[in-house]
User: What shape does this take?
Amino acid sequence: MREPIKVRESAENYLKTILILQERLGEVRSVDVANELGVSKPSVSVAVAKLCKEGLVDRDENRNLVLTKDGLAYAASLFERHTVLEKFLVGFLNIDQETAHSDSCRLEHSLSAKTLSRIRELNEEQA
Assistant: This one.
Protein backbone atom coordinates (compact mmCIF):
# COMPACT_ATOMS: atom_id res chain seq x y z
CA MET A 1 0.00 0.00 0.00
CA ARG A 2 1.32 3.43 -0.95
CA GLU A 3 1.93 6.01 1.78
CA PRO A 4 -0.44 8.97 1.93
CA ILE A 5 0.88 11.95 -0.03
CA LYS A 6 1.19 14.15 3.07
CA VAL A 7 3.45 11.58 4.76
CA ARG A 8 5.63 11.29 1.67
CA GLU A 9 5.74 15.07 1.29
CA SER A 10 6.98 15.39 4.85
CA ALA A 11 9.71 12.78 4.28
CA GLU A 12 10.75 14.54 1.09
CA ASN A 13 10.99 17.85 2.94
CA TYR A 14 13.31 16.26 5.50
CA LEU A 15 15.53 14.83 2.75
CA LYS A 16 15.74 18.13 0.91
CA THR A 17 16.47 19.99 4.15
CA ILE A 18 19.28 17.60 5.06
CA LEU A 19 20.79 18.13 1.60
CA ILE A 20 20.60 21.91 1.90
CA LEU A 21 22.07 21.85 5.41
CA GLN A 22 24.90 19.52 4.32
CA GLU A 23 25.82 22.07 1.66
CA ARG A 24 25.56 24.98 4.09
CA LEU A 25 27.01 23.46 7.28
CA GLY A 26 28.93 20.38 6.24
CA GLU A 27 27.68 18.34 9.18
CA VAL A 28 23.99 18.08 10.00
CA ARG A 29 22.55 17.40 13.41
CA SER A 30 18.91 16.68 14.19
CA VAL A 31 18.64 20.02 15.97
CA ASP A 32 19.76 21.77 12.76
CA VAL A 33 16.93 20.12 10.85
CA ALA A 34 14.45 20.98 13.60
CA ASN A 35 15.51 24.62 13.55
CA GLU A 36 15.43 24.85 9.75
CA LEU A 37 11.96 23.31 9.44
CA GLY A 38 10.51 24.85 12.61
CA VAL A 39 9.59 21.47 14.08
CA SER A 40 10.39 19.73 17.35
CA LYS A 41 13.45 17.56 17.82
CA PRO A 42 11.24 14.52 18.62
CA SER A 43 9.49 15.04 15.24
CA VAL A 44 12.88 14.99 13.53
CA SER A 45 13.83 11.83 15.41
CA VAL A 46 10.70 10.01 14.25
CA ALA A 47 11.16 11.15 10.63
CA VAL A 48 14.87 10.32 10.59
CA ALA A 49 14.19 6.85 12.00
CA LYS A 50 11.80 6.20 9.10
CA LEU A 51 14.29 7.57 6.56
CA CYS A 52 17.05 5.40 8.05
CA LYS A 53 14.78 2.35 7.81
CA GLU A 54 14.16 3.21 4.12
CA GLY A 55 17.91 3.42 3.53
CA LEU A 56 17.85 7.11 2.65
CA VAL A 57 19.61 8.56 5.71
CA ASP A 58 22.33 7.24 7.95
CA ARG A 59 24.22 8.53 10.98
CA ASP A 60 27.99 8.91 11.07
CA GLU A 61 30.25 8.12 14.02
CA ASN A 62 29.39 11.53 15.56
CA ARG A 63 25.62 10.92 15.16
CA ASN A 64 25.37 13.50 12.37
CA LEU A 65 22.77 12.90 9.68
CA VAL A 66 24.18 11.79 6.35
CA LEU A 67 22.29 11.08 3.15
CA THR A 68 22.98 7.65 1.69
CA LYS A 69 23.69 7.31 -2.03
CA ASP A 70 19.97 6.73 -2.66
CA GLY A 71 19.00 9.51 -0.26
CA LEU A 72 21.35 11.94 -1.97
CA ALA A 73 19.95 11.08 -5.41
CA TYR A 74 16.37 11.47 -4.17
CA ALA A 75 17.07 14.76 -2.37
CA ALA A 76 19.00 16.17 -5.34
CA SER A 77 16.07 15.32 -7.61
CA LEU A 78 13.66 17.10 -5.27
CA PHE A 79 15.92 20.13 -5.05
CA GLU A 80 16.20 20.27 -8.84
CA ARG A 81 12.41 20.07 -9.18
CA HIS A 82 12.08 22.91 -6.70
CA THR A 83 14.64 25.03 -8.53
CA VAL A 84 12.98 24.50 -11.93
CA LEU A 85 9.57 25.42 -10.54
CA GLU A 86 10.80 28.47 -8.67
CA LYS A 87 12.63 29.78 -11.75
CA PHE A 88 9.46 29.31 -13.82
CA LEU A 89 7.21 31.07 -11.30
CA VAL A 90 9.55 34.05 -11.06
CA GLY A 91 10.61 34.23 -14.70
CA PHE A 92 7.35 33.50 -16.51
CA LEU A 93 4.66 34.43 -14.06
CA ASN A 94 6.46 37.33 -12.34
CA ILE A 95 5.71 35.89 -8.92
CA ASP A 96 7.75 37.46 -6.12
CA GLN A 97 10.65 35.35 -4.84
CA GLU A 98 9.15 34.58 -1.43
CA THR A 99 5.82 33.38 -2.87
CA ALA A 100 7.56 31.45 -5.65
CA HIS A 101 9.75 29.68 -3.09
CA SER A 102 6.77 28.77 -0.92
CA ASP A 103 4.67 27.59 -3.87
CA SER A 104 7.57 25.58 -5.29
CA CYS A 105 7.92 23.76 -1.97
CA ARG A 106 4.34 22.53 -2.33
CA LEU A 107 4.31 21.90 -6.08
CA GLU A 108 7.55 19.92 -6.22
CA HIS A 109 5.83 16.95 -4.56
CA SER A 110 2.88 16.60 -6.89
CA LEU A 111 3.86 17.75 -10.38
CA SER A 112 4.06 15.06 -13.05
CA ALA A 113 7.35 14.35 -14.80
CA LYS A 114 5.77 15.40 -18.10
CA THR A 115 4.73 18.81 -16.79
CA LEU A 116 8.06 19.35 -15.07
CA SER A 117 9.87 18.46 -18.28
CA ARG A 118 7.89 21.08 -20.22
CA ILE A 119 8.54 23.72 -17.56
CA ARG A 120 12.25 22.85 -17.71
CA GLU A 121 12.15 23.29 -21.53
CA LEU A 122 10.48 26.70 -21.19
CA ASN A 123 13.09 27.81 -18.68
CA GLU A 124 15.88 26.74 -21.04
CA GLU A 125 14.27 28.52 -24.01
CA GLN A 126 14.10 31.73 -21.98
CA ALA A 127 17.76 31.54 -20.90
Remarks:
- Residues 69-91 form the longest helix (23 residues).
- The chain has six helices and two strands.
